[in-house]
Design goal:
The protein has 63 residues and is α+β, with helices and mostly antiparallel strands. Helices cover 43% and strands 17% of the residues.
Length: 63
Amino acid sequence: MNAVEKLVSLEDIATYLDVSKDTIRSWIKKETIPFHKVGRQYKFRMSEIEAWVESGKSADADK
């Protein structure tokens, strides 16, 4: 059986990327960062975030 990747919080991603929570929320609003909405919360898969950063798309997030 395949292990299911744990979803992490907005706070965890902000810490991991060394940006503010408001920056993450801005990226969510612009749909530039990969995210999943679970109820009223935003959750993230680390593998998707790492792929997003490695792809270079994160460099365009603030534009």
